[in-house]
Amino acid sequence: MKRLLLFILGGLLLLTGVLCVRTLGFSTRQVTPEPPAALQVDADAAAERLAGALRFKTVAASDGSPGEDAAFDGLHGYLARHFPRVHAALKREPVGPHSVLYTWPGTDASLRPVLLMGHLDVVPVVPGTEASWAKPPFDGVVDGGFVWGRGALDDKGSVLGILEAVEALLAAGEAPRRTVLLAFGADEEVGGREGAVAIAKLLSERGVRLESVLDEGGVIMSGTVPGVQAPVALVGTSEKGFVSVELTVEEEGGHSSMPPPRTAVGILSQGIARLEARPMPTRLQGGSRELFERVGPEMSFGMRVLFANLWLTEPLVVAQLTSKPTTNAAVRTTTAATMFQAGVKDNVLPSRARAVVNFRILPGDSVEGVLAHVREVVDEPRVKVSTLAFQSEPSPVSPADSDDFRALERTIRQVFPQVLVSPYLNVAATDSRHFVGLSDNIYRFFPVHLQREDLSRVHGKDERIAVAGYVDVIRFYAQYLRNVAR
Ligand SMILES: [Zn+2]
User: Fold this and answer.
1) Which of 112, 120, 225, 270 is the most buried (most CB within 10 A)?
2) What is the CATH number of domain 239-392?
3) Confidence at residue 26, expressed as pLDDT on a 0 to 100 scale
């Protein structure tokens, strides 16, 4: 008995020792770079130029109606007028209906080019809600320290910010050693088929291998990581895949006075209930795991013990993460039943029931794996399983220790010295997924500092960007190009 107690005590001491040593060794991984080189930015003029670009109603539409043609053509003309140096020094190639690829040739042709991306299209404003916006969504207004309008954040702030940066570097007489490509798609919001897909295909046919790709995605957020006071720059090193699974049940119709034990509605409902009860398994990996490894050291001692010892505490951490929808999405393929249709009349048996379940696929899982999971869990031959047309596999995970990631990290800390930098998993899809075959280093980050309540402005109402924040966007892109292309 005494020996057993001693043994347990010894074990506990050893465990405490291991936990302490690991926690003490869990020190900051944030870099401290030299300050950025100076850059001339006229904040008011830049804000006005962005506001002007928001006035073109470049709403993404798959049918390509003439009204939209005029808006996109107008925007391209506007960019040519307002960024004269860019349009004199860079080669401009139209791609597809309204997308464009710019090439800024580097002085050393042996280096692989870097690609910066953005998109010119915006999501529509929900009809009838225009009047509830603080400023009309397509008026492009600068007021109260903000540029207001649809596209200010997603994604004209990024496109114009990149163009401002290149224009400023050209004005300063700076030239890149590495070729810089700028790819601006016109259909990101509807899948990117004629924009990013076409541009990626063009580059691939030319045999281009890209050093790195920088697209929209993560932003700088305050208050998103529990236990961390400082804002965190979330750099997407991977993104989730997407598949919508259609479930259908076809049964005899007929009069509802003599029904079978289960109608098509009941059979399908049971399938949905089973899918909700048995979500796909969790994994704390890739960007989601790296997030805790990067920002964990900045937390309180108790939290550091937790994150320095994930080998032991992972189940605890994962249980905590799965308890909220926002963090649950970071550790598993999510299941969302989004559509259900059946029946025509209260006294008629439904001959058909149809449901759609949307899955956002964690890197490591696949469309095929999701389908296998659905069939196994639904476990009912009368439920037919198929997929809707639009789908994408999750991306590979880009390294968080590449030269390009380090350049990105250094740039963020130069322009935003108070901000912590971390990889993370993008839960939404971006156009960058179409460049997976062209580079191993694909990063998703838009250098703007947002508060939690600002997130609903993206695709929602009152979209806006702070003028001061927009100046930082410009500084960021310029410094990034200096760091990565020189
Ligand atoms: Zn976007």
Assistant:
1) 120
2) 3.30.70.360
3) 87
